[in-house]
Every structure is written in C-alpha cells, then in structure tokens.
Description:
Elements: E1 2-6, H1 10-22, E2 25-29, H2 33-40, H3 51-60, E3 64-67, H4 70-73, E4 79-82, H5 98-107, E5 116-119, H6 127-138, E6 145-148, H7 158-163, E7 168-171, H8 175-184, E8 195-198, H9 200-231, H10 235-243, H11 264-277, H12 283-306, E9 315-319, H13 334-344, E10 348-352, H14 357-361, E11 367-369, H15 373-377, E12 382-385, H16 397-403, E13 408-411, H17 418-423, E14 427-429
Parallel strand pairs: 1-2, 1-4, 2-3, 4-5, 5-6, 7-8, 9-10, 9-12, 10-11, 12-13, 13-14
Amino acid sequence: MRIVMIGTGYVGLVSGACFADFGHHVTCIDKDAAKVDALLAGRIPIFEPGLDDLVARNVAAGRLEFTLDLAAALPEADAVFIAVGTPSRRGDGHADLSYVHTAAREMAPHLRPGAVVVTKSTVPVGTGDEVERIIREARPELDFHVASNPEFLREGAAIEDFKRPDRVVIGVNDSAAEQVLQQIYRPLVRTETPLLMMARRGAELTKYAANAFLATKISFINEIADLCERVGADVHDVARGMGLDERIGARFLQPGPGYGGSCFPKDTLALLKTGQDYDARLRIVEAVVAANDQRKRSMGRKVIHALGGEAYGKTVALLGLTFKANTDDMRDSPALDIVRALHDGGAKVRAYDPEGMEQAARLLEDVTYCKDAYEAMQGADAVVIVTEWDAFCALDLRQARELLKAPLLVDLRNLYRRTDVEREGFRYIAVGR
Length: 433
C-alpha cells in the first residue's frame, strides 16, 4: 500500500516509520522545512528509543521518505493519515482542530478516487464528519472515504506499542474503508492482534474514554497513597492487592507526582468539553482533572515540608524533569509545578535530566542545569527524584551523602527501599509509605 502521513510529530513519525517497516511505501509530509531537512539528513527531532534506527533502516530500503510537497505525494496514495497536533484550545479546553481542518482542505484537490482519509490524531467525536464535509465541499464528485484510527502509543515504548498492540481500533462507515485499513494492518494478523471495527464516532470516543480511564487510575492511587501515609499503610501493598484482581489490573497503579505529557492532560479536558457540548456531564473525569492539578502542586509543598517547612535560601537537587522516563517531553510535567513551588518558597534549584533539559530550559528560568545527578547534588539541602529514569534507580548513596549539605532524599517515584536509604544515613521521604 502507498501511504501518506501528514505531520511528522511524535505520532506521525512513529506511525509512518512502523508502517514502512511493515512493508508499505510511506511518505511523511510536514510544512516545517527545517524539520524535513533534519529528517532527510537522518536527524530525529524527538527522543524515542529505537526510532532513529527504524527510520534509517526504512529510508535506506526506499520505503520511507520525507517531503514538503503535498501535491506530489497525494495522487498515488491509497490512504492519507492525518497526524497533526490537536492541542488544548485556550480558554475552553476543547481540542484545537485547526490543523486537522487545514490538512483536510489542502489535501482535497489532490486525492485520487477511492482514497481513504484516516484521522490518526486524537480528535473529538464528530471530527471525521467535519473532515468529510470539508473534502466533499471542495470535491463533490470525488469517491473517497473517511475513517478513524486513533493511536495508543506510550512515549518511551511507542514502537513496541505500534507493532505489538493490545488492539487496533478502526472506525469506518463503509466497507471500502474497512478493506483498505485491514490490508494496511495485515502484518498484525500473524500476532493475532484484535482489529476492532466500529463506527467512526465510536472509534473517536474510544480514544478519549481509554485515556480518561487510565488517568482516573493514576489519580485514584495517588489519593490512596495520601491516605496510606496518614493511616500507616504502604501504598505498594495496597496497589498489589488491588492489581492482582483481574477486574482491576496492576498497570497505572504506581503512585507518583501526577500525570502529564501530550495525551492525558489535553484529552481529559477535551472529553469534558465534549460532555458539556452534548449535555452529558462527566463528573468523575472532572474530579480526576482537579485531583491531578492539585497533586502536582502538592508535591512542591511536600518537598518544602521535608525541608522543615522553610525553603528560603535552600538549594534543591531535582533529578528528572520530563513527565516520564524515556522521553524528552516536558508538556504538563509535574516538575514544572514543583520548580515553581520551590521558587515561590525562595529555594534555588539545580536539576539534571538525561533527555529533557533542552526542552525544560525553554519553560523554566532560574534553574541550574547540571551534567549529571551528582553535579546537581553538590551543596544541595535535599535531592528530589521526580522522574523514574533508570539512571536514578541505583545512585551511589554514599557519594550522594558526601555531596549534599544535608542527607535528605525525597523520592516521588518510590524507586528506593527505606531501609537501604536510611542505612546510608539519609532521611527518606517517599509517596504513600
């Protein structure tokens, strides 16, 4: 199959490279000339483990290419995937669909008869109808199809998620589109991956519902962690006792400083807006959004409390800035709220992250960025683990104690055992323990 991917961001680049690895011919299109030039030169604009090798291999094989020329790529395409950004719109939290609508308008003159237009971007219910209307308005005589194929990629494990997914959700309103998408995903048949065919609106809503439910699990276990601290229980015991119940499952029951990233924050807000538009208030999701916002702010207060309730004039070593490990994504990262709270309290912040410091520097001022964790700890009054990078799982605690002004470890990801840390003379503050 000949596939065109509009957008070379996280979703578009990963999806395009994986489709090419399946054996399809994929052309990825972007309006950003600098980004396209970088990709043509073999430079990957995002950090995702294994993506550079995957792209290079398929470019070398002639199955993957990058271009600015939409008009040249589209006439031969069997399927055109829209993988542009849908950020939260300022003011109301609704998904900004301007990039999706622009893509639909610009592709319309160049689509071949029988082409399938697929929304890969995360979009609210009814977006496929609007894409179809835009194209139909421009080409009333054209025989084309519109489908929904939402992505379920975890940053840091996106290639594995694409090639070995739990399921592939496909929303179609006609058999022709269904047949094309089944052929595109045929390589997954050998792994017995479920291809869930449903109506287009059902697929659009499935994406939001899934992310909102996962966000709910995160916020729930974080609140249980707070209760554990007060009643003298260990949240990991509680989470394991819950997670072994097959009806609940163990995933997304790890307590921490709150969720962030490119999906959960904007998708929960967009789902709330959809509920408002259709007069179906989503009270549970409302509570999740509020709880997570409060969670991130409270982590800054937790650090200040560990410092004795006074942060003025003190220095804090922050290990981890990205919202999770194995990504350089700083969007809605808990670290942003923690740093702001520490600054508001008069503290100085020294920070290290294996991949996120370039992005963080654009968002956070008055932070000293260090070459490694140990440089960050030099002369600090406390060290705080914010992100669960492997590099922070086996710190040399004796060296850390020598570098720190005070032996205080605030572990917001529960990477350590209390006995191990206290044996080295540290005061240890964890989450839900």
